From TrEMBL:
Protein name: Fur family zinc uptake transcriptional regulator
Positions annotated to bind Zn(2+): C95, C98, C132, C135
The entry's keywords: Cytoplasm, DNA-binding, Iron, Metal-binding, Repressor, Transcription, Transcription regulation, Zinc
Organism whose genome encodes this protein: Sporosarcina limicola
UniProt-listed GO biological process terms: negative regulation of DNA-templated transcription; regulation of secondary metabolite biosynthetic process
List of residues binding Fe cation: H89, E110, H124
Family: Belongs to the Fur family.
Highest taxon of the lineage: Bacteria
One GO cellular component, as annotated: cytoplasm
Localization: Cytoplasm
Cofactor binding, note field: Binds 1 zinc ion per subunit.
GO MF annotations, alphabetized: DNA-binding transcription factor activity; transcription cis-regulatory region binding; zinc ion binding
InterPro entries associated with the record: FUR (IPR002481), Fur_C (IPR043135), WH-like_DNA-bd_sf (IPR036388), WH_DNA-bd_sf (IPR036390)
Main location per the UniProt record: cytoplasm
């Protein structure tokens, strides 16, 4: 997802272009990894010292609901990143040290669904956690 796509989606859903939304989206566009609300707050505090977590979480939730951001839970905390543009179903390896991701194009649900023949599967989430080569100590 790039910034133009994000603004198009927001405009289509009657969301105004605000200073806070611009800063949040800009931060995600320059960081290709999962980020916490605290990281967003720290980034925004220079230009907006009074920014609240409520404002940040409200915008992050809106962006996630509209498909601009994707969300995952790492160590009990919500993390967000820009939505992928791969155009096909995929999953991620997520580095627990730096938050960077790598796409996994194979979906294990193909094998799992075979073992659930009488069940109606409505969705799934599959993520692999660990350390990327740059974060593994030598």
């Amino acid at each position: 997802m790039n910034l133009d796509e994000a603004w198009r989606i927001l405009q289509e859903n009657q969301f105004k272009r605000t200073k806070n939304r611009e800063a949040i989206l800009q931060f995600f566009s320059i960081n290709d990894r999962y980020l916490t609300a605290l990281e967003v707050k720290n980034f925004m505090e220079d230009d907006n010292p009074g920014i609240s977590f409520d404002t940040i979480y409200r915008n992050l939730s809106t962006f996630e609901e509209l498909g601009i951001l994707e969300e995952t839970d790492l160590n009990g905390e919500r993390h967000f990143r820009m939505q992928c543009n791969l155009g096909k179903h995929h999953h991620h390896f997520i580095c627990t040290a730096c938050g960077k991701t790598r796409s996994i194009l194979h979906c294990p649900m193909e094998m799992i669904a075979v073992n659930l023949p009488d069940y109606e599967i409505e969705g799934h989430k599959f993520e692999i956690y660990g350390k990327c080569p740059a974060c593994i100590p030598i």
